[in-house]
Amino acid sequence: MNTQTFQHKDILRIYPDLSARSLVSWSEKSLLTPDHGDATGRGTVRRYSFDNVMQAGVIRELFILGFGFRDIRTFFTEHWKNEMKRFNYDCVLIMHRQTIRASNVPGRISPNFSARVFNMGVFKSLGASAVLEDSTYPLDNGELVLIGDAQLTTSVVVVNVSQIHTDVMGAG
After folding, report:
1. What are phi and psi of 114, to 5 degrees?
2. What is the largest CA-CA distance in the chain?
3. Among the residues of the chain, which ranges form H helices?
4. Residue 41, domain extent
5. Residues 41-58, buried b or exposed e (16+ Cβ, 10 A)?
């Protein structure tokens, strides 16, 4: 277990494409809460754990891949501690995202996603089937089937948490 602490500037050094405002915003919106002390007033320093630094890397990837605050917060609330840390970050995160636009209700969009975490060794042995085996989308002869009067958009995103871990360890 890594007990090292990090400051705001350390995370920005590890992830140079992040802005200082992004980290503050994530903290204000309870997306990334520093484990070792949040800023409580002017001049106080946020102190992040190694786990927080890993979370920042995954949050960054999910934003790049088009996920919004609500979905990312849901992922961390429901999956982070139970699944990601169980593999000591030697894993891959696979998220299926499905959006259904009902044509009978103009402007109504129903986004949904599911997340699975695979140990890196298991992921490598399964290959592409790891990405597709747990699909919850109805199939007919290998084709996605639209249900009723809806337009279905699906995507699968893969986040290599093991690589983020390697990058953080190399920068620390």
Report:
1. -130, 150
2. 61
3. 8-14, 20-28, 50-64, 69-75, 120-126, 128-132, 161-171
4. 5-171
5. eeeeebbbbbbbbbbbbb
Whole-number Å distance between alpha carbons of 80 and 152: 28
Total structural domains within the chain: 1
pLDDT tens string, the chain, 172 residues long: the values are: 567 889 889 999 999 999 999 988 998 888 888 887 665 666 677 888 998 999 999 999 988 888 888 888 888 887 777 777 678 888 888 877 766 555 555 554 555 667 777 788 877 777 666 665 544 444 444 444 444 555 555 667 788 888 898 888 887 6
C-alpha–C-alpha distance, residues 48 and 6, integer Å:
5
Structure tokens at 86: 């169980």
CATH number at residue 111: 1.10.1660.10
